[in-house]
Amino acid sequence: MKSINTQLLLDLVRFHWSIPVLALLVQGTTGVSGKHGGGGKFVTLVQRANISPGSLKRTLDALIKQGWVRRNPGYGHPMRPEYVLTPRGMSLARAAEGVMAVLLEMDVSKAALRKWSLPVTLALGTSKAHFGEIQKNLPGITPRALALALKELEVAGLVERKIVEAYPPRPRYELTPSGQVLGGRARQLERALAA
What we know:
By secondary structure, the protein is mainly alpha-helical. The protein has one domain: Arc Repressor Mutant, subunit A (Orthogonal Bundle), CATH 1.10.10.10. Helix content is 55%, strand content 10%. It has helices at 7-13, 18-27, 42-49, 53-65, 87-106, 109-112, 117-124, 131-136, 143-155, 177-194; strands spanning 69-71, 83-85, 129-130, 159-164, 170-175. The strands form two sheets. It has a three-stranded antiparallel β-sheet. A hairpin with a 5-residue loop joins strand 4 and strand 5. The longest helix is centred in the middle third of the chain and has 20 residues, at 87-106.
């Protein structure tokens, strides 16, 4: 199991709505990825994401601070998007769109968009690991946060917990086939963040 740099990913998932909003921005007002350069109006994003205006504002402010989104400085047509992706944010938004497609297809958005879910998925990768090994590969995670993340991922069918026959018996965690699909999309997101 490899150690991952989680800080950029944590900056992204700190706000629950970051990945869905990036996916909507890449789709733009047409709802089709990449058409007309993406972007969106605040009101349209509220409606399409089914998010409160306050949550959307906090999410957009965080995405702007990270340099992935910017306000559209142009004037002109009243239907122009108010928020657009930066060049750096475009590849990240495409990866976020891929993550959202998998989450919606598997109907696991609620569990998988929590703060530590994607980092845990990445830390597990294709290997089997004990609790302490996962925690070692995720600097900053508390034992309680890791236990909650593993439990939610297990309930969602993304992680499997097996008891190893030893003394004392210890649980070992691994991704299910669905979890491996999500892990592949999460690795694309991690690569886009590192670029």
